[in-house]
Amino acid sequence: MKDLNLGINSLWNSRWSSHLNSRLKTLLNFHLNARFSMRADAYVLLQFMLTLMTGPWMSAQVQAQDYPSKPIKLVVPFAAGSGSDQAARNYAQTISQLYKVPVLVEPKPGGNGFIAVQSVAKALPDGYTVLYTTNTTHAANEHLYKNLPYDPIKDFTPVALISIGHMSLVVNVNSKYKTLEDLVQEAKRRPSELNFGSGSSSSRVASEMFKQLARIDVKSIPYKSNPMSITDLMGGQIDFMFTDAATGVPQIQSKKLRALAVSGQKRLPSLPQVPTMEEAGIKGYDMSYWNAVYLPAGAPSAIVNKLNEMFVKASSSSAVQNYLSFTSGESALSSPEGLAQFQASESARWGKVIRQAGIEPE
Predict the structure, then answer these.
(1) Of 291, 290, 241, 287, which Cα lies nearest the Cα of 264?
(2) In CATH, which superfamily holds the domain spanning 166-288?
(3) Measured between alpha carbons, how far is 158 from 123 in angstroms, rounded to an integer?
């Protein structure tokens, strides 16, 4: 009995005691006052208490209450300067200010997002390595590649849907194409001669859908990221591309690029003079992209919910709202369960779009 009291008192006074909930404390008090006639009973009880206080359940509770206690890394599957990178940095700065913890952004472009996604999938699911990504890696790629080196569902824990955005079809500001109709007519006069660049699956599929609905034959030029594609567009190496608003709007407003149309069902607030694809003559056209946050598979639910809370709180800040307004993004926050459901529906939608566009998996 003496050994039992010493053991439990030691646990009670340890660093774990501050994390015990009231029910567990009641259980401890009960056993501190109980009398056991057999030494075996005392040993079994002490082992039971040790299991409770050092097992996965208690570990998750401790981690959640302490989280975040060290720098968080947001891994982005696209290059620095891309729309996702800009958005991630905006959130990183806001979360860092709100929660007094460093939040770092690490762009890992290349391999159609494979490099970044695989690095996060292999990381510890402790909440400190976070994937800030788009439908490219978690809805489109599974329909574009036969041998995907990751599982967008089994390898990740959904945290939160962040926002939805639209793209703009852009050309060089000195291009002879003043309208979308100009581009379509030229492509029909010169089949297989015009080309488009794309630095993401969203950009590529948007162009392929345009190609199909406009009934034109143009060639695809792949890039590691949209900023790289834009550089060649401004240099005259490619004829047109679809780019996310965050990357394209500053170039359009500074007269370096000309927007011929936007991809959604309504005009962008930041480009009110630019018609939608439908208004410009491409009937039935509608294409959007989204940003979301994931942790590696196996992340404790308490940490998942805490990280979700952090992004939700950051989304209501003036800094994030101003950023979304400038890039014509729409806040679209969700619970972890909501993101899982949204991802499933988006995977089905992107699969249908890719098949209709006639894109064969590589």
Answers:
(1) 287
(2) Periplasmic binding protein-like II (3.40.190.10)
(3) 15
